[in-house]
Write a structure and sequence with these properties.
There is one protein chain. Helices cover 43% and strands 20% of the residues. With 313 residues, it is α/β, with parallel strands linked by helices. The strands form four sheets. Strands 3-2-1-4-5-6 form a six-stranded parallel β-sheet. Helix 3 links the parallel strand 4 and strand 5 (117-120). Helix 1 runs parallel beside helix 2 (39-56).
Amino acid sequence: MARKKISLIGAGNIGGELANLALTKQLGDVVLFDIPAKENFAKGKALDLEQASTQSGSDGSVIGSGNWEDCKDSDVLIITAGIPRKPGQSRDDLVGMNVPIIRDVADNAKKHCPNAFVIVISNPLDAMVYEFQRRTGFPANKVCGMAGVLDSARFSLFLAREAGVSVKDVRAMVLGGHGDTMVPLLSYTTVNGIEISKFIAKDKLDEIVARTRKGGGEIVGLMGTSAYYAPAAAAISMAAAYLNDEKRVLPAAAHLTGQYGCNGMYLGVPCVIGAGGVEKVIELELSPAEQDMMKTSLAAVQSVVDVVNKSAD
């Protein structure tokens, strides 16, 4: 059986780490794509990665390219293209800059990769994945956004460190939009099945929730640019779930048709991801407070989508 083909749109920090993880996990052959002006950069990074793969034992190939023809018939498309956040910027500030970029990517993806499972990472995430799916007309189950896996990872780490337990035993879920209104669900957060309140006091939990919501901004403030190791790891978990038909329950930005009070937009919710893409959206029973937070998050996402729709052609 031929190896699967994974095309990474954007050869920057996230793209490079995506390629590295896809190789080391032997998910398939990789195309590291960027605009023609950065094609040599993509080719150099691809060559570096292939040389590194001799140490990990990976047989997958990596090519750098500025030609969409090289992405033809990809099985998975992961989109990082766009302007990364800078200190002081919100994700929403990026709308005007990144909407034209996601539209160009969508037009080329529709032409060259019509059957791919698409994972969007570009910010503002919920609006970008919405616009990609609208523009391409791809089946909604084959297009999703990477946000909840990353936000849940941050939440899980902070909880594990505070509780003094292994990160392997923390089960946490963060829903809603990928931004300051995200909804960490304490009612569904456990340490190996034991409710988190048995380990961490409420005031500390509140602090951890607040830190999780600002998790991306914290890293931007420290590094001067967006995170890339954790976002790449999160997206690769989603890609592996699809390629290996793992049926994993993961929080992702999925197209909703009435679930959680959302209709026709993308919002972070728990999903089953397998060979059919987003195979199922799981509706959780939320507390009144969590319902209110989801409504607030949905309104925030809607406001950004409205800006995108006003500029639609």
